[in-house]
Design a protein that fits this description.
With about 100 residues, the protein is α+β, with helices and mostly antiparallel strands. The protein has a single domain, classed as Roll (Ubiquitin-like (UB roll)). A five-stranded mixed sheet has the order 2-1-5-3-4. A hairpin with a 2-residue loop joins strand 1 and strand 2. The radius of gyration is 17 Å and the shape is globular. The protein starts with 5 loop residues before the first strand and ends in a 17-residue tail after the last helix.
Length: about 100
Amino acid sequence: MIAAIDAVAIAVNGRSFALDVPPNTLLIDFLREQLQLTGTHQGCDTAQCGACTVLVDGLAIKSCNRLVLQCAGQKVTTIEGLAILRSQAGDSPLSAGPQTSVLGR
């Protein structure tokens, strides 16, 4: 038996992708295995811990229980994408200067 393959067009971190995937591919597996974006982690496998959270069209979702085909035509932002946006805005942690302690020291 030949496994079914579906084409998915999706934007991830501002880049457009059109790839063939099995219909049961989870978004987290697509991000980590096909796009090599490993900042999104799989923690609990039950969508409880939030380690797999990404933004889909600006809404936070758990990528461990969302099929990549459910995100077709949408914009996905991972932690890597947030880091890119932050650095483009000039809000780098290195340029922030020293942080004051809560204790005032």
